Amino acid sequence: xxxxxxxxDRLRGAKTSEGHFTDRELDDLxxxxxxxxxxxxxxRAGMSMACPSYGLPDFSQIVHGIPERAxxxxxxxxRCIEQFEPRVRKVEVQHTPEAQRPMTACFRIRAAVxxxxxxxxxxFETVVVSSGRVRLT
Length: 137
Description:
The protein is α+β, with helices and mostly antiparallel strands and 137 residues long. The chain has one domain: Nuclear Transport Factor 2, Chain: A (Roll), CATH 3.10.450. Helices cover 32% and strands 22% of the residues. Strands 1-2-3-4 form a 4-stranded antiparallel β-sheet.
């Protein structure tokens, strides 16, 4: 079923006539946010000539056995998401070490998405593999 809003209204972030997103629109929004976060988090700071701060610093060090840097990585993730994904707010990132995957770093991202009258909480699991690539689920 097509959206009741025009493309321009959807780009501007307009809501449906009830003042909030339908379940399907919210699911589509979450999927879009997840895809955008994956692009942002797989970009490295300094690689974009148009916006040198776009992306994350290289944090392959945490994957290679320096877990004491986890709080630095959490803060870098939070700053990057808050700066480059305007559809979310109240971003919290938590390092979740996993003994079964010693060559990865796992993080849980929690954020709020405003859907009109309320803010919907969303969660993403993030895995950083030894190559530095970030995967969101």
